[in-house]
Design a protein that fits this description.
By secondary structure, the protein is mainly beta. It has one domain. Helices cover 14% and strands 37% of the residues. The protein contains 3 helices and 10 strands; from the N terminus they run αβββββαββαβββ. Strands 1, 2, 3, 4, 5, 6, 7, 8, 9 and 10 form a 10-stranded antiparallel β-sheet that branches. A hairpin with a 4-residue loop joins β3 and β4. The longest helix is centred in the first third of the chain and has 14 residues. The chain is globular and about 50 Å long.
């Protein structure tokens, strides 16, 4: 019996605890048709809404191909909202730029780089970044006429004038970077509750 307990204890230590949920948000998109759910997968947790609206059922689903979460409407993928990227523990966030270029999330011309971003208050271990244009790409973006809505200068995962997209690091988890896409009007999750394990 003692050997079994030792094996079970060793298993528990290796697996570790589940992602601990922060307090549930105290607001809702539609209190009558939405409810908060704590979603976890790939060492990531987040409070997300499950809404049964006139436009369909809106909810987050885990997508192992990312890895991360996508917003779905009636089960059809609508937008990537959270994506985890791996990097060497001692490396700067720029270590994931080659992967972003290879996946065609950002242009492959070297003119899109990470810059610190002031997103929201957070724990001292957390830092935020977005991808901004430099060089000719920045000059072309700045030359856009004021009456036009410009395309994001650094692609789908870069900074934009319409929609909020950024990357988050936490020094307690130095081998991971989380991409966060809150969209223009919110994408059915509370970004302040994004939690790594």
């Amino acid at each position: 019996m003692r050997a079994v307990l030792v094996v079970v204890w060793g298993f528990v230590c290796l697996v570790g605890p589940a992602v601990a949920a922060p307090p549930q948000p105290n607001y809702s998109t539609d209190p009558d048709r939405c409810r908060w759910e704590w979603k976890t997968d790939v060492g990531l947790g987040v409070w997300a809404e499950h809404c049964e609206l006139d436009t369909g059922v809106w909810e987050l689903h885990s997508d192992p191909d990312l890895p991360g979460f996508v917003l779905t409407i009636d089960g059809i993928d609508d937008a990537v909202v959270l994506q985890v990227f791996q990097k060497p523990a001692g490396a700067d966030i720029a270590a994931i730029l080659p992967e972003l270029r290879q996946r065609e999330y950002i242009p492959d011309d070297g003119e899109c780089v990470f810059e610190p971003a002031d997103i929201r208050p957070a724990a001292g271990t957390v830092a935020f970044f977005d991808i901004r244009p430099t060089g000719d790409r920045k000059a072309a973006f700045e030359a856009t006429p004021e009456d036009e809505v410009p395309d994001p200068p650094c692609g789908d995962y870069g900074w934009s004038t319409h929609g909020v997209r950024y990357f988050m690091t936490d020094s307690r988890f130095p081998d991971r970077v989380v991409y966060v896409n809150t969209g223009q009007d919110g994408l059915m999750f509370d970004p302040a509750t994004v939690t790594l394990e």
